[in-house]
Protein 1
Amino acid sequence: MLNKRKFPRLDEQWELTYRVLDRSQLTKDPIRQYSVNISGGGICFTADEVVPEDTMLALEMNSNDLPANMLALARVARCKRIRDGYEIGCEFWWVGWQNNDAQQEMANYILSATKDSTSTS
C-alpha cells in the first residue's frame, strides 16, 4: 500500500490542551487530552465532544522529549465517531511561540523518532 502522507506519523501520546477559537467559547477552560499520533503537518487526538470540520483550535502540546511546550493553531480536518468519543484530525497552520523554527524542530524530531523505530523493528 502506497503511503501518500507528506509527513511521517509518530504514534506517541503527547499531553495537549485545546480551545475552540470562537469568541463565545474562549472563556471556557481548555480541554485536556492526549494525542493518538502526530506529524510535522498535524495531530490526531481523541475528544469527548464533536469538533466540526474547519473549526480552528488553539493547541498547547507537551512531549517529555522536547524542551518546552509547543503552541499551535490548527484546523480540524476530520472528526470521526469512535467507541468512546471522537477522533479529531487537525492540520497545523502555525506552530511555535516566538520561534519560527518550532514546527521544523518538531518535524525533525518525529522523523528521527520514526527512523529509529523502523530501524529497530
Protein 2
Amino acid sequence: MKINKIEIVGAIIVLVLLTSLILPKCFRALEQSKEIATKKGLSSLRSAIAVYYAYNNGKYPDSNIAKDLVDKGYIEKIPYVYIPHHKKSNYITTTNLDNNTDSGGWAYKVEDTPDSSGRTKGQIWINCSHGDWSKL
C-alpha cells in the first residue's frame, strides 16, 4: 500500500485543525486550575488566621504571620498565588499597604489604623489590583 502526498497533507491539515481546537481549551483549563488553587490558598490562610485568633485569646498574627502560622502548625506552608500579571508568589506583604497595592502574593493587615485598603486588622487578600482579585 502506497501513501501519496495528498493523503499526508490531508492528515497534517486534520491534525492542525484538531490542535487549534483543543489547545485553547487546554490553556483555559490550566488558567482555571490556577485560579482554583489561589482561591483555595486564600481560604486556607483565612482559616489558619481564624484558628490562630481563637487559640491566642483574640490576638491576630503580627507582621511575622508566615512564621507564626507555619512554625506553630496552623498551616503546613504558605500557599502560592497564581494570577495573571504577576509571578507566582507566596510572599505576604504586611507593611506600607497604601503604596504596595499590586505586588502579587498576599497582603495582610497588621494594624487597626485606617488606610485605603478598607480592610481591618487580621484580614488577608490577594495583592493585585487587576480585575477582581483584590476583592476576594
Protein 3
Amino acid sequence: MIKLTVDATIDSLDIILEKLEEMLDDREFSPKSMMQMHVAIEELFVNIAHYAYPEDAPGKADIDMDIDSDNVVTMVFRDSGQPYNPLAKEDPDVTLSAEERDIGGLGIFMAKKSLDSMEYEYVNNQNVLTIKKKFV
C-alpha cells in the first residue's frame, strides 16, 4: 500500500500518477486500463485541487492506493475541504450536443464510466472518495 499526503494543487497530480505507476511497475496491463485510471484520477483530483479549499488557503489531500491479487486497484482520496459529493450530481445527457448540455459534470461522468466503482462519504469532517478499477 502507498500512502501519500500532497498539497491539494494541480502540481501534485504528477506525484499521484507517478506513485500509481511505481505501484504497478512490475505488472503488465493494457494501455486502455492505465489510460482509464489516469483520466479518472485526473478528473477527481483536479476537482479537489480547484474546489475543496479556498484559493487563498490551499489544503492537503491524503491518497491511499493499493492493488490486490486480482489486479483491482483501490484508491482512497481524503480532503478536509468543503463537503462535496461528486456522485450527487445527475449524469449529463450525452445524447445532447455540447451546446445543448448544461455546463459541468462531464469529467465526473467520464471518471465513473472509466472505473468499476466509486463511492463517496463525508466522515469526521472529511470528504472520502473511494475508487476501484480492475486492471486487465
Protein 4
Amino acid sequence: MKKMLTVLTLSLTVLMSTVSFAGPYFDRNNDDYSQGRKERSYDRDSEDDRSRSERRIREERGVQRLKQHRWQTGYVMPQHYRGNGYKVEYRDHHLPKPDRNQQWYKINNDYILVNSDTNDIIRIMAF
C-alpha cells in the first residue's frame, strides 16, 4: 500500500510539473506580434527555397557526373554505389560466380565485380 501511494504521488508530481512548463499564451490578433512574425517567416521561407534549389542543382550535377563515370579495374568503387540497391545476384544475371569477399554490382547497365574488403574494382562487364 505504501509503494502504491508513493507511485501515485510521484506520478501526480510529474504530471503537475509538466503542466507548469506550458508556454505563455500570445494573442494572435496582436498586430505587432503577427506582423513581425510574418516578416520573419517570409525571409526564412525565401532563404529556405533558395537553399533547397541550390541543393537540388548540386545533386543533379552530382548525378550527371556519376553517370558519366568511367569504370576501370583497379579503381576504388565510390561509396555512393556501395549500397544494397546496386548489389545483384550473379545467378539471376548469368554472371560468373564471385570468389569469397567479392560482390557483383549493377551500375548504369554495367556489371562490376568488387572486392568487398578493399572496394577495389576487379572486373567490368558491359551489357
